Amino acid sequence: MHIIEDGNAAAALGVKLCRANVIAAYPITPQTPLTEKLSEYVESGEMKAEYIPVESEHSAMAVCIAASSAGARAFTATSANGLLYMHEQVQWAAGARLPIVMCVVNRAVGAPWNVWNDQQDSISQRDTGWIQMYCADHQQIIDSVIKAFWLAEKVSIPIMVCYDGFLLSHTFMPFDLPDQEKVDAFLPPFRPAYALNPDEPASLNTVTLPDVRIDVHGELAHGYMEIRYLLQEELRASLAVAAEADKRFTEIFGRGGDPYIEPYRCDDADHIAVGLGSLTYQLRVSVDALRKEGIKVGVMGIRFYRPFPDEAIANALKGKKGVIVFEKALSYGYEGALASDLKSALYEHLAGTGRLPLVQNFIAGIGGREIRTDDLTQTLRAATQSRIAKEPTWIGLKL
Amino acid sequence: MGTRNYKRKTSHSENGPGDGGRTGSWRVERPILDKSLCIPCKRNKEACFICWLFCPEIVISRTIPPKIDLEYCKGCGICAEECPTKAIIMVDEAEFSKEDKE
Ligand code: SF4
Ligand code: SF4
User: Fold this and answer.
1) How far apart are the CA of B72 and the nearest CA of chain A, in angstroms?
2) What is the pTM (predicted TM-score) of this model?
3) Model pLDDT for residues A121-154, shown as the tens digit of each residue
4) Residues of A in contact with B7 (CB under 8 A)
5) Averaged over B30-55, what is the pLDDT?
6) What are the structural domains of chain A?
7) Residue A231 main-chain phi, psi, to 5 deg
8) What is the ipTM for the molecules in this complex?
9) Helices A57-69 and A80-95, interaxial angle, to 10°?
10) Which of A51, A178, A331, A385 has the fewest Cβ atoms nearer than 10 Å?
């Protein structure tokens, strides 16, 4: 059934369809309407879940960790400084291998205070051991939430579903609302490998010594290093499981395709613009305009940022002259994190070929600064003609 | 030898002594039980067992008298602190090493 709703409603409907058992969240702009919707569903009995209001984001994640450890399907959502406040528990959830799903409604981080969109919040959580998915429209938001629960539970790794604050969270768009029966067919109830059980008492994630140890049964058990290695190993392996999720999803819902990247007019392009989230759909307008001028350019949205689909990206960029990375975040003191990751992937997979595309990095829309499509078009046109700058260039800056 | 085939991906400690290693070697003070003060011993009935309940290493038995496994007792003194009749006192380990030498 097609409906017209805002992005936060798309996320809330996805969580409802997935029959989450526990929702714990603290409201923060622009995430607030998402959690309000969920609390309404629970209040009205439309959704059979425990909604636990908390006093902070740190507690929201702590509740999700406890709920997930007890075998519940747990969900939370946050933005910006709320996510930063949650950071310690975010790392914990990944180390504890709990399949929590969290929507991050992307917003700039303070200081100075700012409620508008950029992606500094989720990018700053890149190294926490979570899977990160980025959405470009409302269909992707609801579909990603559904896929995220399946994937998270399959690999025992938590997932952030990120989408742009206001640009997606508060705008209305038509999208297909999946049928409950189909979602049930796609996503079976959560069956954890271990759930807290009074008959089998255990302490979880207790202090783990630098070296391996002998457990109470006399078996050789992991030390800290083995546990962290397994997280990395299974995060890398989760790329293949994400492809499986996408395949199953496509079979049931008739939508899907490339799970990692979303190329647009890339096949014959010489230059490819790359980005995360709704910006990549805006870039399609610029690409169409430049194509009319005869400039062979395309755009590639990255759906999965962690684990980084380095091989798929390098294959898609093989033989291209230039890669133009647009980012709404920055690794302060260097360049956009995505640009660094892309260069690393290109070097890893194409260094031997002697044909490394030139990577240029542009920073846009920081703190909600309006990104004018004309500015994107001009920047893209110029970047396909010559190298603009070694340092990342800020678009729309008024210094 | 590695832990590749270990059944868990996380740190998971089950009830029982030894999950944190041979914690008996940590001990500087040893808990000593005075049966004349211990409630279950005096009544010869299952009772109290607060020491059993509180011991973080789970090394006190729920028996008459309660027995302490010194292989893993880490000497934290929680049992002595919690015992309502002060039936457990903590004694410096040096006293016992003297005994052992004699
Ligand atoms: S001192 Fe008492 S509470 Fe502490 S480990 Fe030993 S027996 Fe247990
Ligand atoms: S707490 Fe004290 S009185 Fe109670 S069983 Fe233990 S030693 Fe005896």
Assistant:
1) 12
2) 0.90
3) 999 999 999 999 999 999 999 999 999 999 999 9
4) 219
5) 97
6) 2-186 (3.40.50.970), 262-394 (3.40.50.920)
7) -60, -45
8) 0.81
9) 30
10) A385
